[in-house]
Structure formats: structure tokens, C-alpha cells
Give the backbone structure.
Amino acid sequence: MKIGRKLISVILAVMVVFTATVLVQRYFETKRLYALFNERKEINALKFKQIVEMMNKKLETYVIEITYWDEIVKAVESKDIEWFKSSVETTILTGNDYSAIWVYNINKEMIFSTGAKEKGFEPDFAISSSKFDSLLENKIICHFFIETPKGIMEINGAKIYPGSDPARQTKPRGYVFAGKLWDGPYMTKISAITSDKICMYPYNEIFLKDKSDFKEGIISFIHVINSWDNKPISIVSGTSQYTQLKAISDAFAKDLFLFLIFAATLITFIMYFIIKWITNPLNLISETLKKENVSLIKGLLKDKSEFGDMAQIINQFFKQRTELNEKEERYRMIFDTANDSILLMQKDKFIDCNKKTLELFGCTREQIVDKAPYLYSPPIQPDGGDSTEKAMENILAAMTGKPQRFEWVHRRYDKSTFDADVSLNAFNSGGKDYIQAIVRDISERKKAEDEMKRLNNNLEEANSELRNFVYIASHDLREPLRKITAFGGILQKNLKGALNSEDAENLQFMIEGAQRMNRMIEGLLAYSKVSTTTHLPQNVDLNVIVSQLQDFELSLMLEEKGAIINVPQTLPHVEVDPVQILQLLQNLIANGMKYQKAGSKPEITIVSKPAPNGMVRIEISDNGIGIKPEYQQSVFIMFKRLHTNKEYEGHGIGLAVCKKIVERFGGKIGVESEFGKGSTFWFTLPAPCDIAEEALAEV
Ligand code: ADP
């Protein structure tokens, strides 16, 4: 059941219980009132009875009084009608409310009867004498009702005795019956005394019905009047209005009505606010979660209630989930588009892999997920080790936290094999241990490595042959040249003066040619030595090299040319062969001093600049003749010269050697020049490791 409905049910239940309590309370109150009502009913009936009895007492007293009187004894015995008329009739008609009187002698003969004529009553009937004895047996006075044509009459009767027999033990002398007609005025009188509305009806069962009405506060009682022989002859009903009871009952009804109105209004209000404040927001939240549509709770986001907070949390959740999905998608893309096979392992089973894996192993995802790694390896590795054992060793080592990298022979699904470079990394995510395996197909690289090995061997052979050739060239070729120079010199000396000037000049050309040839071979030898030298690279301070050149190798030339070498900032260290760096700087500085306009004073400036990839850049600038742009590349080619020997002496080997030295250490060389103004030769060389690391840290 939904929470809104539950709340409404609870409220309804509370209201029902509350209403039931009110009704129960009202039930007991009504019961109490009802008891009060009945009690009042009984009191009214009793009161009526007592008043009627009290009224009758007067009649009784009269009857008793006149039946104990000597004069009436006499009048009865003498049948003195006149006496009765003057004494009894006057009393009845004037002093009392009696309607009739009958006097009988001892023989039960009626000797006198009279009625209240002014009230329209005539005692035109007699009391049946046969009943006298039974009515008055052992009684001083009898009391009964009879039905007369004028209505119901209440009668009291007694036997007559002389005054000398107050105990009434002698023989009675006659009988007196006095009656009181229960007519309209008498009823009105009783009504006035009892405060009830007294009505009289002929005896009929339909009048026996109790007319009391609790709700209306009407109290009614019934009094049945019986004749002398105990037959019901009339019904007297008394009715009165119990106003307080009606007021209380009305107040109850009003209270209940008001309470129900109040309860209904309260329930309506509570239900309205439950729907507005609880059911509606809950439905929106529920729909949002079901349909995953955050726009449904847009209106709730600014709500200050707990539902507003919930809406914000849900909104945040969906936002984060979208971001997470995007992130997940991005990582999935990286994972799937990776050029290497990436596999995820848990314990000793693959649990996921990327697309490249399926391509590399030639299988479907189902064929690899949940499978053990050794299924994708041949039983034995090239070193003779068991694949399963070796794989487990590597996995266990990776699980200790040490990333593993090794070469491995893998087996595709079709059983063909390939060489792979495998990395294993362990990590923990969500409390679970995983191993990530990156498998790179190195078949091509292996082939290339083999090919390179083969080429290196060839190169080594070729180099060795070259070294032999250079050795031969340097020794065997230079030997005849030395002889030409030496014997040319002897000839020049011996034939001095004997040769004409043309022959002497030719002999000089021959000696100089042999000398140049010798220097060229020396240059070649120096060039070849660059790559064949076996000195290991070491940390070399360029400032020391420049100082050495200034003080020794180039000191003479500097002096001759009056040249200056500027080093504005301290030069860096480089990781090279110290002999070759000396040769490199010497060649470049010497060229800067050599290629100058006649008479100009050479000025060389050496600076260093930062270079990428752990290199340093050194620039050597001069104020010389410069190089035209079209020749700036070709000056590094062996034997390439831009001038004749007459202009500037040289052999075109220096810059080729420089290039070879720089390239040997992984550097580059070049020239920037403005023709006629000067040149800047630059080169890059590796910085020592510690310096490169510092530079990297600064970056
Ligand atoms: P060499 O100096 O023996 O001729 P190099 O290989 O050192 O051989 O130089 C090649 C050519 O480059 C030189 O002949 C010269 O024309 C040019 N050259 C080299 N250095 C400079 C320089 N600093 N200024 C102008 N030209 C230069």
C-alpha cells in the first residue's frame, strides 16, 4: 500500500475510533437519560395515583362521617326523604364536588338518590344491591368505579351505624354510596395539580399504548380504571413534556452533528494536505525513479521540505550516474580502442577483455571469459619451462604488488602461436583483487630485431673491413706519399739552380700535391676514427675544453689573428667523448677565425641554449665572411669547399668530421648565416643524466 494511502487510512481509523468513542459515550449518556426518563415516568404515574387517592380521601371521609350518624339512621329507618333532601343533598350540591349519592335501607332498597343537577348529572341508575355484601364484606368503606352514561364515576360506599356503635359491630342500618364523576373539569383540576395533561378514554387496547417519546422528551403514563368487578372500563393517560431531557437530547444531537461536521472537515483538510505535501511529492519521486526522468521532480528541487532534499539527492544521483556512465563509456572506449590486448583477471580466470584481445587471439568473448590463461599458451615456453607453472609464478609475483613484465609465447584459438610482451599489474577495487594483463603482439618487432641483428652483424663486418681499409690507407698509401715528399725535397735540394724556373715550379707542385694528399688522408683517417674510437662518453665540462683550446691547440692561431673568444655565460657539461668534443670545438672555432675578410679581427662568441629531450645546444658565432643560404647545407659534405686553397687553405673535411661526431652522440648540427656578416654554427649534444633530470624538474 502506498504511504499516502496508509496515512489516510490511519487518519480515517483514528477518526473512526474517535467517533466510536463519542458514540459510545453518547450511548451511555442516553442510557442514563433514559433511566432518568423512566424514573420520571414512574414518578408521574405515582404522583397521579397519590393525587387521585388524596382527592378520594375527601369523598371517603364524607361517606364515613354520614354513615356514623344517628340522624341518618333515623332517616333511613323512617324513609325520611325530606331529611335527605335538606341535609344530604345540600351538602353534595354545595359543599363538595360529589356528583351523586345513593342511600339504601337495610333491605337494600334505595330510599334516596340525588345528583348534582347543576352539573347535569342525574343518578338515573342504581348500584346493584346484590353486590353490597361482597363490596363491603369486612370493610368499613368500599371504593370502586362504575361506568355511567355521563362517564366514569368513582364511588365510595359504607354501611350505616348508629352513633352508639363507633366500632360498627352492630347490625348495619342501611348503605350510603357517594360518587364522583370523572368529568372534564375534574380532569382539568387533576391536570393542574399534577402538571400533566390528563386525558380519559374509554377502555380500548389501542389506548394502552405508551405514548412516551424519549427523543421528544414526552413522558406519558397509563392508568387503567377497573369496575367494581375488576373489569377495565376506562383508561386515563397523563402526558407531560420533560423539557430538560429534550434540551439535553437536542444538545447531544447538535454536538454530534457539529462533531461529525468538524471530523469531516478535519479529514478533508488532512487528506488534502497529505495529498499535497506527501502523496504528490512521493508519487513524483517514485515516478522519477521508475522512469529515470529527473525533469519530473524539477518543481520539487526548490521545495524546502524533506522531499526537496530528497529531490536534490536524486537529481545529484542521476547527474553523477550520467557522469559516471559517460566516464565509464570513455574508459570502455579507451579500453576497447587500445592497440594492445587488455585482459582483466580475477584469481586465475579472465573476467573481461577488450576488442583487441578478441582480434589478437582470434576468439569470441565467451571463448575467453571465465577461462584460465594457460589455455591460451602452448604447453611449453621457448626456454623449456611449463607454461602453467610459469604463468602462475608471474601471477603470484604480480599479486604481491610487483608489476611483472616478460616475453611470452601465446597461443591463438586456432592453436597458432605468436610472441608477446606481457605486463601484469595487480590492483584492488571494491575490496576485490584484480590483475590487469596487457599483451602486446611483438611478432613484427621480433622479426625486425632479428633483421637488425643480421644488419648489425653485416655492418660490423663492413666496419671491420673499413677499419682495415683505413689502416691500409693510412699506412700503405701514406708511405709512397712520404717517399714522394722526401725524395722530392732531396731532388729540390740537389737540383737547386740546375732546374729552370718552370721545372722547379713543377717539382714544387709535385711536393705540395703529395703533402696535400697526405693531409687529406689524415683527414679521412680522422673521419673514420670518429666512429671507430672506443672512448666511452663521459661528463665533460665545456668551459674546460674551451680554456684548453685557448691555452694550447688554438693559442698560436689566436695570437696570429689577434682573435678573441667570448664566453658570456658559463657553458654546460655534456656527456660525450672528451677527445671528440675537443676536436669538434677546435674545428668550428678555427673555421670562425679562418673565414674572415682580410685584415679583420676575428671575434668568436660561444653560448649555450636549452634544448629538448635532455640535450644542450651550443652556438659558435663569428664575425666572418658568412655563407650564402644555398651552400649552408652542403658545407657538411666531405671535401665540399666554397673557396679555393689560394683564398682560404683547407681540405673540406673539418665540418664533415664535426657532423659525424655530433650525430654519433645523437645530436644535430647546422649553420645560420648572413652572407658577408658572419655565421653561427650550432650543435646539440646530450647533457649528463643528473643535469637533464634537473632541467626536467624545472620544466
Ligand atoms: P676546410 O675548412 O678545410 O675547407 P671545412 O669542412 O672545415 O673544410 O669547411 C668546409 C667549407 O665550409 C669551407 O671550405 C668554407 O668554404 C666553409 N666554411 C666553414 N666554416 C666557415 C665559416 N666559419 N665561415 C664561412 N665559411 C665557412
Summary: The longest helix spans residues 3-66. The pocket of adenosine-5'-diphosphate is lined by residues 591-592, 595, 622, 624-625, 627, 635, 640-643, 650-656, 679 (CB under 6 Å). DSSP finds 17 helices and 20 strands in the chain.
